[in-house]
Amino acid sequence: MTQTHAPQSSSVRFPVQPRLVPAIKAARYLHLTLPEFMELLPALQHQGFPRACPITGNYDLVAIDAWQDKRSGLAGSGSGAQSSAEIARARLATLG
């Protein structure tokens, strides 16, 4: 037996956060208006800003976050999580 109707909105158990967003939401994510975003887009892309998906035309929020992290010095700096041994050594060093 096949189901012929779409699920009711009340049957959705959790919201889905989109990963790909249209230009207006990508602009808002950068705290820009759409006209500002479109004007700055060539300069942003020159700095490595991710391009829109060639199929949907939408922008990947995860890629935008990674781009911003890299520009801010938060990505690839080698300052990842410390091992428990490193933490213990640092604490012992403070004791004298």
Q: Could you characterize what this model shows?
A:
By secondary structure, the protein is mainly alpha-helical. The chain has a domain at 18-75. 45% of the residues lie in helices and 4% in strands. It has 4 helices and 2 strands; from the N terminus they run βααβαα. The chain has helices at residues 23-29, 34-46, 61-71, 84-95; strands at residues 20-21, 59-60. A two-stranded antiparallel ribbon has the order 1-2. Helix 1 (23-29) packs across helix 2. The mean pLDDT is 86.
Structural Rg: 22 Å
What structural class results from the helix and strand content? mainly alpha
Please give the count of helices. Answer: 4
Name the helix and strand elements from N-terminus to C-terminus, one letter apiece.
EHHEHH
How far apart are the first and last residues' alpha carbons, in Å? 74 Å
Fraction of residues in helix: 40-55%
Low-pLDDT ranges? none
What percentage of the residues does DSSP assign to strands (E)?
Answer: under 5%
**General shape:** flat
